[in-house]
Structure formats: structure tokens, C-alpha cells
Fold:
Amino acid sequence: MTTLREYRLSGQKAFAVLLDPDKIEQNALSELLARTATYPVDFFLVGGSLVTDYSHKEVITAIRRQSTTPIVLFPGNPLHIESSADAIFFLSLISGRNPDFLIGQHVIAAPLLKKSGLEILPTGYMVVDSGTQTTVSYISGTMPLPHDKPGVAACTAMAGEMLGLQLMYLDAGSGARKPVSPDMIAAVRSVVDVPIIVGGGINSGEKAYQAMKAGADLIVVGNGIEQDPDLLPQLSTVVREFNQSVVQA
Ligand code: 1GP
Structure:
């Protein structure tokens, strides 16, 4: 699969749709997948911080039936490992100070991952305050990064990169009222070379555009598309047009 690093090196932006196995219904998934033939998506992410029915495998099988788009697991814990995906974000929650989510769960997951054949993507996961407590903050028992402190996010990302993490994920949390600010994305962009993933509360083409302009390499959208399927064509087009404008410039 085209890796995120390749996107970054080529200066291209990418777009991912997050599918939460708890929320997505079969018909809605099938319609969404059919639309991606016209409005492409670069990656499907499958997962969430709290998943209750563990239907990752069914969702992945359904995607495979209709699409060749790479599938990346976005796990909340080792129970979410599913070897039929292509890759997994191996998330270290570096915005928090809970050792279990910095290294503990990883020790439990390591032997399973070794056998899985999944591509492992070591990722610095930074949860950013969006005004309300998110599921990931509650489940992980960690405080998010302050929304208006880009410098703290930049130092966190720098440390993560120095520790060898290969991607940085700035996440305002699913359904966030306000997405990660362009100022924070730009601050992180100015200090790290690794690809930057941005998600949480991106529910318009304009918000996606602003995030890419500030330096995001991969835009992740879940809730927005669940609530309004017409957002898919809009976001797919905004990302393509952004990439075309970079090539023409
Ligand atoms: C959440 O970044 C993802 O972890 C996506 O968020 O559901 O708000 O798009 P949304």
C-alpha cells in the first residue's frame, strides 16, 4: 500500500474515513463504499477507543468486498487487533501520563502483533482538548493537551519523534465541537518531519482545507460522514483539489 511517508515525501495530502464498528450499519457502509468508487478515499480506519461489539472483522470483510483501499486499524486496546486489516496505528498516548497507554498495552499486544502480519505504524497519539471530555480521555484516564497551547503540542511531538515514533496523530476526539486549531497543526509541522494525522470534529471541506494548509498530511473524518454522507464527495474533492493546486504551483 502507499504509505503515509510516501504521501509526505511526495507532498501529497491524504484522506481517511474512520469507521466505528459499533456505529456503522451494513447498508450505510455499502452505500459509502459504492460512493468511494467516484470519490476516492486513501485509507479506511477501523476502530475507536471504546468498541463494544467487536465486529472489526465483519467491517473489514465488507470493505474488502467492495474496495481495494488500504485498511488501517485504529485500536483502543489489544482486543481490537484484527489480522485481516493491512496495518495498525501502534498508538502511544504521548499527550497523557498514563503508563498503561504509553507502553503497558503495547507489551500485551506485541506478541499478537508479531504474529498478525500487520504493518506496524508507531504513532505518537496526542489528544487535544475540544471543550468537552472525550471518550478517549475518560477511558485512558488522561488529560488532553490544552487547545490553545500549540507550543506544548510542538514539544510533545518533538519528543515523540526523537523517541522514534513515525507518525503524529493530533486528535480532538470523535465528534469534537472544535477541531485541532490550524495554529497547533502549524506549530507541530514546524518541528517534526514525520507525517501528521489530524482528526476530530472535521465536518466541512473548509475545516479540512485549513488543516491541510497548516500542515496536516492525513485528514481523518468519522462522525461528519456518518451524519451527512454528502460530506464524502465534498472532502474527497477538497483533498484532490488541494493536491492539484500544489502540483500546479
Ligand atoms: C476520532 O479523529 C477521529 O478519533 C475522527 O473524529 O469522528 O469527529 O470525525 P470524528
